[in-house]
Inverse folding.
């Protein structure tokens, strides 16, 4: 089997024609992880036993002549902030270092029901807070294209595992670019669905009005197959949406497509090598007969500040649950404990359990929500969020999709931005607006600057995932 | 620049223990980030409705019934607790002293 070029459809055909078994496929991927992942560090935990058991179950169905779904037997990886029952779920944090998930996330359950083989859990910035996976308490993930560079974050492990062919696809989560940025840096396809398109049940909450689970894969088609398997209303997530009434499947002619290019995303500060690749990609779509229209998203320059007020605010509330009392790291467990009362348990458990970036965001969010500052920071940011959404509403009145670079740079060097939190935040400058507005967006590899991949971001109207995926597919056909 | 006292106050509100070194570090870093947020003051937001979600949000509730399945689940959950006594979660006293 040609493990480096395996896609979901090829696996489906290979299993049907008995070219290989699901067990062989799982074993080959696990062997590849053991051989190649030491230098990359995309996996935090391997779920070997469960993976082999699942693969055998698929083989059994095939032997009986049963019809199996497209995902049956497909080896995949899951970001370690989504629960897989009876497997550790750390969120990249000391706080949950020994936490074993008591149930499956809805997305994970859907993958399991389809027969997908979950190989293990992938590395991430602690609680998904970061843009490089350097904030993982267990060490950074390296970029398979250049081991001295970051994989991007926060779903760095999920992107690197696919890029290094250690998994056919993976699940990531995206709060401000955490699927798209690592997809761009590692040269894989990543889809951040519309807020509400995929259930968040069983995803460790970071910023609940932003978080969204999505697929990372080698091809657009694979992303689409996984998205179709995990999307839809879940009674356990009140923000998830019924696909029947709200997710259309648009048919369109590429010739009639209007592509918006926002002028605010083509300003100084973008790496010239990245800009060249993006402009060539846009030209390619123009040559297919699409209409390229310059649009304006005038509040773009405020998006990052807006994002970094609201997201830490939501995070500070969500992370209040890690108090050393119910689960997770607790000073109350320490035999030599010194704490006198419950407050001490809170203070000490959180001091030792959380890393620097998580503490920084809890502090920022608590500050922005505290009496006397709420109106100036949180409330004002919520109003700016409305203006940013209106910018997109106006642009989508004129165009069908919007093209931007996913990131102003290619993958940066390990350690390059870790000393200055603001510099790290700026890596998200082209991705956060999409989350503020709740839109779907794809990061599509469209070339390289030097030896490093560059991603084109394709943004769509709410619940038009299929349109941006179809647009993405055209790139490789043309 | 925010003061050290402000950093300590916020840490207390957040129930976050900080070392002296961290207090100094966060004073500097939070001041720089809050300085960046000043940018938002350039925008006229009068008459703009604040936006909390991109979709309409409604509270939903499940039916409040006990089931055998949930009982088994609750054992899994209590196992994750740092300290229990007779099947109950055990915590430190909430009042000072003793």
């Amino acid at each position: 089997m040609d493990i480096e070029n395996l896609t979901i459809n090829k696996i489906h055909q290979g299993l049907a024609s008995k070219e290989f078994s699901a067990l062989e496929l799982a074993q080959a991927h696990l062997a590849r992880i053991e051989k190649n992942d030491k230098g990359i560090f995309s996996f935090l935990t391997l779920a070997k036993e469960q993976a082999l058991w699942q693969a055998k179950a698929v083989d059994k169905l095939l032997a009986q002549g049963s019809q199996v779904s497209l995902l049956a037997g497909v080896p995949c990886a899951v970001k370690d902030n989504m629960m897989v029952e009876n497997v550790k779920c750390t969120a990249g944090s000391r706080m949950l270092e020994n936490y074993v998930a008591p149930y499956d996330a809805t997305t994970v359950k859907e993958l399991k029901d389809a027969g997908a083989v979950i190989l293990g859990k992938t590395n991430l910035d602690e609680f998904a807070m970061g843009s490089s996976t350097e904030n993982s308490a267990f060490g950074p993930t390296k970029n398979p294209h250049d081991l001295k560079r970051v994989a991007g974050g926060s779903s760095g492990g999920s992107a690197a595992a696919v890029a290094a062919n250690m998994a056919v696809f993976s699940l990531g989560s995206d709060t401000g670019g955490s699927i798209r940025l690592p997809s761009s840096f590692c040269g894989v396809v990543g889809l951040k669905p519309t807020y509400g398109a995929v259930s968040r049940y069983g995803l460790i909450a970071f910023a609940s009005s932003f978080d969204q689970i999505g697929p990372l894969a080698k091809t657009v088609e694979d992303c689409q197959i996984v998205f179709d398997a995990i999307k839809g209303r879940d009674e356990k997530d009140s923000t998830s949406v019924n696909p029947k009434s709200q997710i259309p499947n648009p048919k369109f002619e590429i010739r009639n497509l209007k592509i918006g290019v926002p002028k605010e995303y083509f300003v100084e500060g973008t790496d010239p090598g990245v800009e060249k690749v993006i402009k060539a990609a846009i030209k390619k779509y123009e040559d297919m007969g699409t209409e390229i229209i310059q649009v304006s998203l005038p509040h773009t320059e405020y998006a990052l500040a807006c994002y970094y007020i609201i997201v830490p605010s939501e995070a500070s509330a969500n992370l209040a649950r890690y108090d050393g009392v119910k689960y997770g790291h607790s000073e109350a467990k320490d035999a030599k404990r010194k704490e006198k009362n419950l407050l001490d348990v809170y203070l000490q458990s959180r001091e030792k359990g959380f890393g620097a970036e998580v503490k920084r965001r809890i502090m920022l969010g608590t500050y922005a929500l505290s009496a006397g500052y709420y109106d100036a920071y949180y409330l004002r940011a919520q109003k700016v969020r409305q203006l940013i959404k209106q910018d997109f509403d106006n642009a989508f009145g004129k165009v069908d999709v919007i093209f931007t670079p996913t990131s102003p740079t290619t993958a940066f060097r390990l350690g390059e931005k870790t000393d200055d939190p603001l510099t790290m935040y700026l890596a998200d400058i082209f991705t956060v607006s999409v989350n503020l507005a709740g839109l779907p967006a794809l990061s599509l590899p469209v070339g390289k600057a030097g030896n490093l991949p560059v991603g084109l971001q394709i943004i769509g109207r709410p619940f038009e995932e299929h349109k941006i995926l179809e647009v993405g597919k055209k790139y490789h056909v043309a | 620049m925010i003061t050290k006292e402000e950093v300590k106050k916020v840490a207390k509100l957040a129930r976050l223990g900080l070392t002296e070194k961290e207090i100094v570090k966060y004073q500097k870093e939070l001041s720089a980030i809050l300085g960046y947020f000043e940018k938002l003051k350039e925008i006229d937001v009068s008459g703009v409705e604040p936006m909390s979600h991109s979709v309409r949000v409604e509270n939903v509730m499940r039916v409040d019934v006990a089931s055998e399945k949930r009982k088994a689940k609750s054992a899994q959950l209590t196992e994750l607790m740092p300290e229990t006594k007779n099947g109950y979660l055990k915590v430190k006293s909430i009042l000072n002293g003793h």
Notes: The radius of gyration of chain A is 22 Å. The CA atoms of residues 381 and 452 of chain A lie 35 Å apart. The first strand of chain A starts at residue 43 and ends at 46.
